[in-house]
């Protein structure tokens, strides 16, 4: 069976990773001299507590190609085909490091790397789809074809209290246009073709979440996969799930938590929806 690999920015829960046989490689998060593996050495609760109490923003770093190659070597003992799907190469060097790692693997194994051109559960939904296809017995070529066809149909939208974290982290891209336009706005950004894009701005948190709901509603009847994510506001996320259940089966909506690496750039009050359209 094809082995599926991803990075921790995909925000796939431990339970789902175990159920679907997904290997998640943690990205590194640095607070001063302290270095943590995302989701391994530091929990989301601990991370957001540190984020809100520290004056300096944490930094993130991709594991070395050698460390990634070690993961591939282990999986190559169990399979001769590996598909590694990662966050947008416009935001991170993970894809590049994975390609370098592939050449370091000594065992005979075909390893392919896909740039999801997405982040958080946009990436995660693509990985989950790949893993389900692998469990059905699809080969590497078939899974790659499915994923590559779904990448342009994958959409992420995020509502923030502030864009300052994106700005400080250097990931703001075209969303720069939303800064300074209004005081006390709630900006909404998306990820399309691997880049952060400005989408809207609302004057209240409630209206921002309404915007997310209406965005998903626009795909009603043609949603293949759907996820809601939060950082520190689970009640808001589950309330949004209840609303979205009128558009898509509730039991099929993934609820996930924005991890440490993404949290560095989006802040503690982000809430998001990710979907793949049919």
Tell me what the structure shows:
This protein has 278 residues and is of the alpha/beta class. It has two domains: 3-152, 3-Layer(aba) Sandwich (Rossmann fold), CATH 3.40.50; 153-277, Hypothetical Protein Tm841, Chain: A,domain 3, CATH 3.30.1180. It has helices at 14-20, 44-53, 65-75, 94-102, 120-135, 140-150, 164-168, 205-217, 234-244, 260-266, and strands spanning 3-7, 22-25, 28-31, 34-37, 59-61, 81-86, 110-115, 154-159, 186-192, 195-202, 223-230, 253-257, 271-277. α1 links the parallel β1 and β2. α3 (65-75) packs across α4 and α5 (120-135) runs antiparallel to α6 (140-150). The relative contact order is 0.16.
Topology readout:
Blueprint: E1 3-7, H1 14-20, E2 22-25, E3 28-31, E4 34-37, H2 44-53, E5 59-61, H3 65-75, E6 81-86, H4 94-102, E7 110-115, H5 120-135, H6 140-150, E8 154-159, H7 164-168, E9 186-192, E10 195-202, H8 205-217, E11 223-230, H9 234-244, E12 253-257, H10 260-266, E13 271-277
Q: How many domains make up the coordinates?
A: 2
Kindly identify the CATH topology of the largest domain: Rossmann fold
Strand order of the largest sheet: 10-9-8-13-11-12
Give, in order, the helices and strands: EHEEEHEHEHEHHEHEEHEHEHE
Contiguous helical run count: 10
Specify the biggest β-sheet: 6 strands, mixed
Spans of at least 5 consecutive residues whose pLDDT stays below 50 are 169-182
Shape: globular
Mean pLDDT: 90
**Main CATH class of the largest domain:** Alpha Beta
What is the terminal separation in angstroms? Answer: 26 Å
Judged by helices, strands and strand pairing, the structural class is alpha/beta
**Overall number of strands:** 13
- In the CATH classification, which architecture of the largest domain applies? 3-Layer(aba) Sandwich
Tell me the β content.
Answer: 25-35%
Helix content: 25-40%
Backbone CA Rg:
18 Å
This entry's quaternary arrangement is: single chain
């Amino acid at each position: 069976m094809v082995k599926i690999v991803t990075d921790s920015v995909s925000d796939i829960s431990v339970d789902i990773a175990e159920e679907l046989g997904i290997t998640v490689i943690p990205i590194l998060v640095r607070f001063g001299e302290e270095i943590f593996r995302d989701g391994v050495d530091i929990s989301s609760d601990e991370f957001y507590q540190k984020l809100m109490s520290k004056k300096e923003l944490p930094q993130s770093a991709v594991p070395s190609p050698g460390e990634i190659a070690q993961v591939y070597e282990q999986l190559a003992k169990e399979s001769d085909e590996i598909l590694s799907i990662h966050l947008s190469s416009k935001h991170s060097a993970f894809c590049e490091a994975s390609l370098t790692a592939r050449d370091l693997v000594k065992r005979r194994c075909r390893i392919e790397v896909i740039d999801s051109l997405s982040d958080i559960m946009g990436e995660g939904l693509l990985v989950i789809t790949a893993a389900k296809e692998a469990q059905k017995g699809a080969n590497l070529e078939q899974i790659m074809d499915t994923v590559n066809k779904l990448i342009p149909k994958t959409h992420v939208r995020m509502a923030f209290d502030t864009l300052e974290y994106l700005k400080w982290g250097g990931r703001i891209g075209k969303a720069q246009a939303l800064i300074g336009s209004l005081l006390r706005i709630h900006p909404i950004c998306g990820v399309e073709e691997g880049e952060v894009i400005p989408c809207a701005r609302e004057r209240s948190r409630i209206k921002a979440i309404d915007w997310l709901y209406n965005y998903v509603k626009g795909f009603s009847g043609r949603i293949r996969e759907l996820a809601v994510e939060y950082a520190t506001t689970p009640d808001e996320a589950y309330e949004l799930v209840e609303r979205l259940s009128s558009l898509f089966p509730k039991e099929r909506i993934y609820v996930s938590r924005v991890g440490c690496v993404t949290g560095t750039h989006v802040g503690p009050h982000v809430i998001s929806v990710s979907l793949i359209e049919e």
